[in-house]
Each structure stands twice: as structure tokens, then as C-alpha cells.
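User: Please predict the structure of the protein below. I'd like the answer in C-alpha cell form so I can feed it into my own downstream comparison script.

Assistant: Understood. Taking the following sequence of 397 residues as input:
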Amino acid sequence: MTRADVQVDDFTIAIDDGVLADLRDRLRRTRWPSGLHGTGWERGTDLDELRELCAYWADGFDWRAQETLLNELSQVIVEVDGLATHAVHVPSPEPDAIPLILTHGWPSTFAEFRNVVGPLSNPAAHGGDPRQAFHVVCPSIPGYGFSAAPREPGWDVRRVARHLGELMTALGYDRFAAQGGDWGAMASHLMALDIPERVIGLHLNLVLVYPPDSPDAMEGLTENELARANRFAAMNAGGGINYAMLQGMSPHTLSPALSDSPAGLASWLTEKFRNWTQNDGRVADAMSWDELLTHLTIYWVTNSIGSSIELYLESTRTGTMGPPPARVEVPTGGALFPYEMLAPARKWAEPLFNIVRWTEFEGGGHFPSIERPTEFVEDVRAFFAPLRAGTPEHRGG
């Protein structure tokens, strides 16, 4: 059950018709840039593809259908540390289930996990073993989507991690499993570092470890590890992390444009979804436009894109954006997808994490719960299976 001294309210997404009408109107009135066309993605977002996407967003995309699907997931608003925090909270029907917090990153939202909540919380209903069930919590990071934005500076990813630990306490979970990618990976590894007595195990689909600056760093690497290292080097050489530098230095320079123009928002975010996934040139090769536009619409209707990128500045200033500052002793599983931005060699990760499982997949990228949901679920189940022994039951409600 939830803590008696914490306010937990049921939550249903219900966006006002006027907000959706304004979105469609803005999309139809987009002032498209002049200049070169037909250059594909070599100069950034493909403007021809973007126009096609925005036309569909205005006149083809059915937000109400996506809203209905999202509302099939039980959701709550919880007052944590003075902030109204949104989360999917789906307790399992299985008595031996363990709590699991799945934390998203940028530029995705909690909706990243909508296809894996059911198999994880109720495996028996999805052809799985009921002994591998979880009580699933998928929070919206503060300042993202339906979670309130922090009202003062200082909310770096370490404070976010502390906030998520308090959320789990509020929901009645003393000990829990943690999983994440992107910001969710950083928040999860910081929870494992700061409150190790509460974290049963740590599963990461983004293992934040950079290539060591040593002459023998590449010695002994497998063919797959070398390919991933070369991909990361090529991305850096091509300016692939410039977005993070901009958001980490001047979020207020960028956020008015993204908050005022849905086409601008789509251009900025679609580039990341396209570049960070396995595809044949179009983001639709990795996920449907409906899936992509669900994330974009959540940012738009909550006006949260500006507050979401503040996390880059806060974490850059405190040096918390990146690898953990000390070794994480909590048992850790790495799920390595080859089209991830950074997918390090195991030998680079072992000095910073207590690696007990290391899985290298043949496909997929930065958003495996969207791109490879079945493999994602199977790996989460397999990693936590041996860690369940002796874990007391904690069930929220």
C-alpha cells in the first residue's frame, strides 16, 4: 500500500480540445524556411520529410486514440519533494512480484514503456512465467510531460535520482529494481550509488562509460565492441553531441522556439529519434509516426520542452551528467544495442559497475523498449531472476 502521509491521486490524461485545435492550426500555418531542399539529412533534419510528418500531425494523427491507449495504463500524481509527480503505476497481480522503476530519458517520455508494462507486470497474460512479475512504476522525470517542473535551480540528475527514490517510498516500496536509459540510466545508477541498500539490482540499456584515454584501450576488443567504439567516435567527430552542449549551456536560447513552433519542436526531436535508432534512413523504419508523435504531442500539450532541457544545464554545472562518480556495487546488467550512441566494451564498464550480466543484441538503438520490446522484456526478466531470492514483498496500491 502507499504511505498514509503522502497524497496519491489517480490521473487520467484528458487534453482540452482547444489545445489540440491550436496545435493543428499552428502546424498548418508553419512558415517553412527558404534555402536548399532535397539534401536529405546531410545538413540536419530533412525538411521534405519534416513537412510530410507535420502534415500528418496536423491532419492524420489521432491523439485521442493514443490518449485512450495511454489511459489503459494506471497512472497517478504524487506530491514528492513539493512537486506533483506523474507516474504510471501498475501493481502486479502476482504475490511474489518485485517493484521495478523504469525511467525514461530525453527526448522520449514515459510513453516509451507502454508496450512493456503489461508483459512485465502480468507475464502470465503475455505468455510468460508469473514468477517473473514486477510491480511497474514509470515516472515522468520532473519537468517532463505531466510532472511539474522544478521552481528553483539545482535540479540536476542526482537530485532527480533522490526524487525518484522518494517517489518509490511514497508508493510503498522500500526496496526495488531499477532500469533506465539516457537520463534514466544516470538517475538509476545514482540511486544504486546513493541508496544501494534499497536497490535490488540495476539494469541499464545505456551504460555510461567512455572509452579510456589509454594506448591499450582498444586491445582485446571483440569485433562488435570495436564496431560500437568506432560508431561512437564517428558520432563525436560529426558533431553528434552538439545538441547536449547547446542545451547544457543555453537552454533559454533554444526553448522559446521549441515551445512556440510545433514544426520546430518536431525538427529538433525527430532528428534525435532518427539518428539514435536502427533505421534505413527514416525514423519510421524504427518506430511508427504515431509512436513518435505521441512523444512530441506530450511535450507540446504540457509545454514541457523548455523545462525538460533545463536538466542538461543543471547536470552539466554539477558534473553529474555522465558516468557515475564512484564504482556502483549493486549488481548491474548491461543491455548493449548496437545503434546506441554509446555502447562500451565490457572491460571498460567493469571498473565502474559490478557487472553480473552483459547482453549484446544484434539490432536496436537508444529506445529498445520501442524498437525491440520483446528482447528488452526478456533481458530485464533474465537479469532480475536470480536477484529475487530473499527479497521481501513490497506492494503499492
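That's the full C-alpha cell string. The chain has 15 helices and nine strands.
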